[in-house]
Fold:
Amino acid sequence: MVTLNRRRLLQLTAANGVLFHTALWPTLAKAAPSLALKPLIFSHRGASALRPEHTLAAYGKAIIDGADYIEPDLVPTKDGHLIARHESNITDTTDVAHHTEFSSRRRKIVMDGKEQEGWFTTDFTLAEIKTLRACERLPTIRPLNTRYDGWFEIPTLEEVIDFVAAASTCSNRLIGLIPEIKNPTHFRKLGFSIEDTLLKILDSHLYTSQAPVEIQCFEDTALRYLRQKIGYTRPHWKLMFLLGGRQTIPADILAVGGKTTFGDLMTPAALKDIRQFAEAIGPSNDDLIPKTQTGQWGNPSSLIEDAHATGLLVHSYTCRPENRFLPLALRDQAGDNARNIKGSIAEIRRYLELGLDGFFTDDPAIGRLAIAET
Structure:
């Protein structure tokens, strides 16, 4: 009699274009082991499927819906404050284009080797940023979120921490923060040290001196610097190395003419090196189960197993509930932009079956449902 383990079962079903209903999986084999006591839910820019990203409303909704951690992406202002935006270019996530007093500040820059045009946080003081209001980044995909356009200001990191601390006391549970340092090589050239500013703020707040914190970045130079600065003196803090596209060269390596890609950094040998300065890696979901050109799931990779073998946790990104973001076999007939809760739950469960330790999601309530069904 042949016994199928989970990974072999997934490989066989993917190879034959067959997707078993996830409700059947527990009766067929045992799930791969996770290094975590329980899978963690990281709210991606807050509950960004339901509220404009990186607003206190998005963070609050995420907390109400059961997120274990909320994620503030961090970029600096002209006067050195850290604010919660996914990128320095605020053209698509604020109403800056409607502020005629800032029209002359629209410009082109090169960031990490790519040209961008728009308005950038480093050209604005915090006081000026506070005159802007957040807008939905994906208005055609998430039109309901546009009803909140103009409601919320752009929060600073300090304001985010205060908000989470208050929510923690109200909900009677400890809520973690998973801040991402954005483009540190680029900002360092402009005279900003996001790493040092972040540490100063985290160390100065009583909540983050006690609550779980996981600092993430796509550049290992920043994480190695942080490890050197803090050592292992804060046991409730972790560092996570984010992994971009396999063919992409990390910005800090590109800046010095290096050729090493993120794919090169996903090998067992490279993972052992990452474990010297980080406790976790953050690959994309496509690095766990690659998709074919038609959008179907292919064979699962060994990345989770390889990372676990070195002691690294795996926290992947990003689970989104709309059909267009789901593997083809999990989509329904409601349209590309329709929310597909059943399909999203099935996607998350499949990653958890591979031993995933935590995941980023735009909709933490769906993540909570997926965990409850495992």
Summary: Confidence is low (pLDDT under 50) at residues 1-29. Residues 6-86+121-372 form a domain with the TIM Barrel fold (CATH 3.20.20.190). The longest strand covers residues 313-319.
